[in-house]
């Protein structure tokens, strides 16, 4: 089963509530929320206040992607705001195991994100502690970038390891996903797909979202 998580980073912030409702109606499975601090990534987006504002509007899982330093300091805020998933970058968390435990203890499902260059080996020791692995297929910081294909073999490797260990972990892809780029990723074993510009950049969000989903399910 393929899940689509529209990234609100590409939405019209002046009418964010309507945008969320529209993609929910279009068949979104999760709502992806990109939090950027201007330190770990070269861009600033928004914080927990936006999660708090969206929470009462939708029953869909809120998938919070933290592209920030000092994640430990903010986990409680995002949990209280209503996050269902919190993913943190291996590159930004020197005490990753502790951070994962903090997320779990705050009642949220933890996930780990790998930048395009990061090897999967860094997360093998904590696989049993997480619900989600997110592979970046762009360098994080901005929407609308080009998909980096060399990430796909890593997805295939990890998917095989997860199967062999009999674990149930979602594999998510983020960056440059559209109805073409989803195909190799789904074949490699990913099942949750973030799409920003490929959904919010289109007039007919339902048609855009469903076309991506169909391509992934083929
Ligand atoms: C990039 C973000 C992505 C981004 C995806 O740093 O993590 O979630 O919004 O946007 P598209 O789908 O346009 O590449
Ligand atoms: Zn993201």
From TrEMBL:
Annotated InterPro entries: Aldolase_TIM (IPR013785), Ribul_P_3_epim (IPR026019), Ribul_P_3_epim-like (IPR000056), RibuloseP-bd_barrel (IPR011060)
Residues at which substrate binds: 7, 65, 141-144, 174-176, 196-197
Source organism (scientific name): Planococcus koreensis
Annotated GO CC locations: cytoplasm
Active site per database record: 34 (proton acceptor), 174 (proton donor)
Catalytic activity: D-ribulose 5-phosphate = D-xylulose 5-phosphate
Cofactor(s) the protein needs: Mn(2+); Fe(2+); Co(2+); Zn(2+)
Name of this chain's protein: Ribulose-phosphate 3-epimerase
Pathway info: Carbohydrate degradation
NCBIfam families documented for this protein: PRK05581.1-4, rpe
Pfam family, one: Ribul_P_3_epim
């Amino acid at each position: 089963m393929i899940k689509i998580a529209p990234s609100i980073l590409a939405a019209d912030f002046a009418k964010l509530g309507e945008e969320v409702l529209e993609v929910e109606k279009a068949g979104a499975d999760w709502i992806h929320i990109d939090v950027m601090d201007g330190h770990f990534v070269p861009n600033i987006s928004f914080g927990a206040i936006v999660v708090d504002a969206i929470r009462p509007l939708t029953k869909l899982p809120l998938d919070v992607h933290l592209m920030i330093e000092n994640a430990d300091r903010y986990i409680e805020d995002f949990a209280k705001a209503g996050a269902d998933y919190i993913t943190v970058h291996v590159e930004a968390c020197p005490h990753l195991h502790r951070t994962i435990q903090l997320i779990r203890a705050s009642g949220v499902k933890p996930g780990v994100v790998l930048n395009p260059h990061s090897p999967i080996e860094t997360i093998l020791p904590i696989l049993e502690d997480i619900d989600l692995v997110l592979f970046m297929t762009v360098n994080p910081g901005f929407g609308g970038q080009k998909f980096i294909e060399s990430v796909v073999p890593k997805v295939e490797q990890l998917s095989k390891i997860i199967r062999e260990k009999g674990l149930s972990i979602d594999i998510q892809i983020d960056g440059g996903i559209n109805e073409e780029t989803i195909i190799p990723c789904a074949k490699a074993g990913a099942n949750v797909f973030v799409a920003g510009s490929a959904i919010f950049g289109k007039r007919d969000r339902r048609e855009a979202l469903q076309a991506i989903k169909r391509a992934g399910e083929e």
